[in-house]
Amino acid sequence: MSDYMIEFVNVTKRYGDIVANEHITLQIKRGELMTLLGPSGCGKTTALRCLTGHNHPDEGRIFIDGQDVTDLPTYKRNLGMVFQNFALFPHMTAFENVEFPLRIRGLSQSERREKVVEALKLVRLEGYGSHFPRQLSGGQQQRIGLARALVYRPSVLLLDEPLSNLDAKLREEMRFEIKDLQVRLGITAVYVTHDQEEALALSDRVAIMNKGRIEQVGTPEEIYERPGSQFVADFIGLSNFLEGTVTAVEGETTYLAVDNLSLGLATTAGARVGQRVLAFVRPNEVELAAPGTMSGPEVLEGVVEKMTYLGDKVDYRLRLGDRLMLRVQSGGTVRFKAGERVAVRLPMERCRVIGGGKA
Ligand SMILES: Nc1ncnc2c1ncn2[C@@H]1O[C@H](COP(=O)(O)OP(=O)(O)OP(=O)(O)O)[C@@H](O)[C@H]1O
Ligand SMILES: [Mg+2]
Q: Which numbered atom of ligand 1 lies nearest the CA of 38?
């Protein structure tokens, strides 16, 4: 038995001149929920379609459960699918919708009945079998769609933006339902989204895609805490980028010249004077205080250009020095208004250098 349920090995897919997937290599473990995350057009659906067999890769191979399926038709791959613009059959009841894949597969009426009842229970919609889609809420329709994808017990579940038609609150609830269902069934799942919060909430691991390539694969925590590139740091959560040149290394502190400012970063295996460094810090990791109340190499002064009250937090856009703009978010009440001067502490250990190690 292969350790991996799904393997992409060096998969490239072109549409004419467009390289929609470029040398994609990705292993997905048994029972794992892997999310393909990236901006619109980066090739997520294309990769999923290579997996389903709706696309044939120009190069590379695809394996499901150790079997090379690259040349197998879709119906021989035993996949359950829920798609973005998924539609239930409007003229069929919920029961009939869920039953449909079993009819195609030629199961007897009693077998079908048993499996449909079980699937409806799985998505907590027993008792809704006789409802037509128009008599169901968006979330209920989505759950019927899930039941339809799971009723024949596929070995892999594929979901392409399955929540994009739902409102924000329902989307958040459905996230947990999908995750819960996936864990209960122990099914391997590939989830496609461009919503980073959804990806962080659902996934065992996330593959971040950019322009047809995979930029980084890791657990939600790894990609958030240790982004391997500026693209990833920018795509996952909000980031302030601090690009500068190392001017001095003194003990535990590396001094970085960012524009006309001097900023201290934490040490620094092997940082050299003159080296270019790109660091980042999250808006909620920066501390603000009244001017003159903090000091040290990691403290700078700035001016609030814009303050936005967001309920659970306050968002500040600060100008530091001539050009550097910094986004800071802090919880609670409004402490500074536009035009006020502030002291800004960029905690050394939170200003991480992109690309792994430290400065
Ligand atoms: N059938 C097709 N013919 C030609 N080009 C295509 C086709 N399908 C996709 N593309 C192109 O391939 C690239 C990747 O598209 P894909 O649908 O995989 O992106 P995506 O990451 O799923 O985007 P979204 O988040 O908008 O759904 C895009 O540039 C797209 O325009
Ligand atoms: Mg897509």
A: 21
pLDDT tens figures, 292-324: 999 988 999 999 999 999 999 999 999 998 889
Verify that 314 and 347 share a domain, yes or no: yes
183 in the same domain as 34: yes
Q: Is residue 359 part of a domain?
A: no
For residue 107, pLDDT beyond 90: yes
In a domain, residue 107? The reply is yes
> Is 18 touching ligand 1 by the criterion CB < 6 Å?
yes
Query: Whose CA is closest to atom 29 on ligand 1?
Result: 41
List the domain range (segments joined by +) for residue 206: 4-235
Long-range contacts of 165-171 (CB under 8 A, 24+ apart): 165/84, 165/85, 165/138, 166/138, 166/139, 166/142, 167/138, 170/138, 170/139, 171/198
Domain count, the chain: 2
Residues 144 and 258 both lie in one domain: no
- Which atom of ligand 1 lies at the shortest distance from residue 16's CA? 4
Phi, psi of 152 (to 5 degrees): -95, 20
Q: Give the per-residue pLDDT at 322.
A: 84
Measured from the Cα of 39, ligand 1's closest atom is: 25
**CATH number, position 317:** 2.40.50.140
Q: Ligand 2 centre from 43 Cα, in Å? A: 7
Cα-to-centroid distance, 75 and ligand 1 (Å): 23
Looking at the fold, whether 196 and 262 belong to one and the same domain comes out as: no
Strand, coil or helix: 277: strand
Q: Quick one: 218 and 269 in the same domain? A: no
The answer, yes or no, to whether residue 356 has pLDDT greater than 50, is no
Q: Is 194 in the pocket of ligand 1 (CB under 6 A)?
A: yes
The ligand 1 atom at the shortest distance from the C-alpha of residue 209 is 21
β-pair type (156-160, 79-83): parallel
Q: Is 146 helix (H, G, I), strand (E, B) or coil?
A: helix
Q: Compute the distance from residue 42 Cα to the ligand 1 centre, in Å.
A: 7
116: pLDDT strictly greater than 70: yes
